[in-house]
Design goal:
Blueprint: H1 2-8, H2 12-54, H3 57-97
């Protein structure tokens, strides 16, 4: 119960700084996830090429579809990470101007 009261009495400027920190951490996490998804996409592309070289076009199409999905996921994660980073910078700016 004591913890809840201390949170509610926190200075709004401290809350702003905390939110900025959390946004920055979230941005970094999303960028790392984006890199992992891109690595998976690259691995799937190699697998697709292997199936194509063997002449198994049906399997190559399926694996290539997975590679495309991972690539799109990577782009979306990277975009969201950039947005979170921008919000964190705006919060930092707001904190400094007060």
């Amino acid at each position: 119960m004591g913890k809840d009261q201390s949170k509610s009495k926190k200075d709004p400027m401290d809350q702003l700084l905390d939110a900025s920190f959390e946004m920055r951490q979230q941005s970094k996490m999303l960028e790392k996830e984006s890199q992992r998804a891109q690595q998976k996409a690259d691995a799937e592309k190699k697998r697709a090429m292997g199936f194509m070289n063997k002449g198994d076009m049906e399997s190559a199409k399926i694996v290539a579809g997975e590679a495309i999905r991972y690539t799109k996921e990577s782009v979306n994660l990277n975009r969201m990470g950039a947005k979170m980073g921008a919000v964190a910078l705006k919060l930092d700016s707001a904190y400094r101007t007060q």
